[in-house]
Amino acid sequence: MDSVKNAAKAATGQDSQFTSGHQVPIQDMSQPSQQSDMKGPDPVNTEVPTEDGGYQTYRAAGKLKGKKAIITGGDSGIGRAIAILYAMEGADSMIAYLPDEQKDAEETKEEVEKHGGKCYLFPTDLTKRENCAELVKKAVSEMGTINILVNNAAYQNMISSISELSEEQWLKAFDTNIHPYFYLSKYALEHMKSGDTVCNCASVNAYIGRPDLLDYTSTKGAIVSFTRGLHNQQIAHGIRVNAVCPGPVWTPLIPSTMTKEAQDQLSATPMGRPAQPSEIATCFVFLASQDSSMISGQSLHPNGGVVVNG
């Protein structure tokens, strides 16, 4: 791991939070996880790296002006950063989250409004089909339409062997990580039109086959395939469907679901560090905007430099 960090530092000439200097503070958290309970450093939502190894506030350009988005898991982590950057680009959002995560959701709403956007809160359990339908109905009622669907919410729990992986956890992973993607896409697409987009959050694990996250990895592979199939259905209607496949990201999901040993390995990417949520959220801005007008059915790989050939 030291050689990876040294290589990253040598390549950049810097040692900052965004290069090789961002060390994960090992900690324990329970589920559902609260971003407000994380030990420092706080996840970064609105700043992006600069060439000199520092970072600056994200520079918006009105790329999503007037757009309306649904973002699942929008209370914290990647979802929170997406909601904030969407607001900076001119979009309003309705964020869905578990009822136990209300404090984080309120903080996201405050940040979104600080950057000029509207943020509608919808606490719910998306493993239930009827709640997915109600989320879409409420979004249309409050915002008037849906232009962007961000399927982002996820569950994971490390288990080292298939013999120890319970049937209940396997089902929970699929009920959380892929079934709502189907339900929400099915219901939201009834209200979407040409130029609108669906952005799904997959994972590098779908490509590397992480053994201690077998169920999670399987659902993320399903999301990649779902993205490709839905794209082939919807592209004739002018609706683009893409996925983002992050590597390790400093979010509440990490300390609440990973062992201390696993957390210690999060910097073992070619870049020598995990990502910040802001670095993943920029991909969701790109895919939701006209900057990516020629991209559909594809996956972006902000994974710290892991070559996946997929």
UniProtKB/TrEMBL annotation:
Transmembrane segment boundaries: none
Region (Disordered): 1-54
Record family assignment: Belongs to the short-chain dehydrogenases/reductases (SDR) family.
Name of this protein: Oxidoreductase
GO function terms (MF aspect): oxidoreductase activity, acting on CH-OH group of donors
Keyword entries, A-Z: NADP, Oxidoreductase
Biased composition, class Polar residues, residue ranges: 13-22
Regions of compositional bias (Low complexity) in chain numbering: 27-38
InterPro entries: NAD(P)-bd_dom_sf, Sc_DH/Rdtase_CS, SDR_fam
Origin species: Letharia columbiana
